[in-house]
Amino acid sequence: MDISVRGRNIEVPESLRSVVEDKVTRLSRFLDGMERADVQFSEEENPRISEREVCEVTVHGHGHIVRAKAAAGDTLAAVDRVVDKLEHRMEKLKGKLVGRSHPRRHGSVDFPAGNGARAVVDTEDEDADDEQGPARIVKTKQFDIKPMTPEEAALQMELLGHEFFFFTNAETGRAAVVYRRRDRHIGLIDAS
């Protein structure tokens, strides 16, 4: 697995790099075929926040993207928390992949193994200003969208830990969004 470790406005010591690479490499035992992992460290600037050290890991493979983010009082604790989250999400992905490929499951959909890009919507909170006035667009992202079923999009939304996921519906060929409802079920908005 190719592992990239970066710090956003902080220096990442070599000892921390080796610990992170070791822990992230061990994630491959949960699911073979994970190709790349991007690890990013940052620090919350608000002194009132006790858990200031933030670690975000994004793992790419099997045509899926699994992301987790955690904060703690020290950097190693943040790494441990994010690895625990990733282990849980990768076990969930493995269960879904095995369950969907099982021959007795009716209406199963195999996940494509190609190198098609999946849509990733970053819901990272930007620093909110308390300024009065109309809301403005502060961040723009562009990405390739691969057609998928609503079930695949819902799985990808859960793996990313987001509340919504934008995709092209393979069944209709139109833009669609799956989202987490207040009752914790999943909703689908499909363009007409």
Tell me what you see in this structure.
The protein has 192 residues and is of the alpha+beta class. Helices cover 26% and strands 26% of the residues. The protein contains three helices and seven strands. The chain has helices at 14-25, 75-101, 150-160, and strands at 2-7, 34-43, 53-61, 64-72, 164-168, 175-180, 186-190. A four-stranded mixed sheet has the order 1-2-3-4. α1 runs parallel beside α2. Mean pLDDT is 80; it is low at 106-131.
Short description:
The chain has 192 residues and is of the alpha+beta class. The protein contains three helices and seven strands. It is 26% helix and 26% strand.
Low-confidence stretches: 106-131
Tally of DSSP β-strands: 7
Q: Over all CA atoms, what is the radius of gyration? A: 18 Å
Count of DSSP H/I helices: 3
What distance lies between the first and last C-alpha atoms, to the nearest angstrom?
Answer: 41 Å
**Strand order in the largest sheet:** 1-2-3-4
Shape label: globular
Helix content: 25-40%
What portion of residues belong to β-strands?
25-35%
> What is the string of SSEs from the N terminus onward?
EHEEEHHEEE
- Helix vs. strand class: alpha+beta
Query: Could you tell me the mean pLDDT?
Result: 80
Biggest sheet overview: 4 strands, mixed
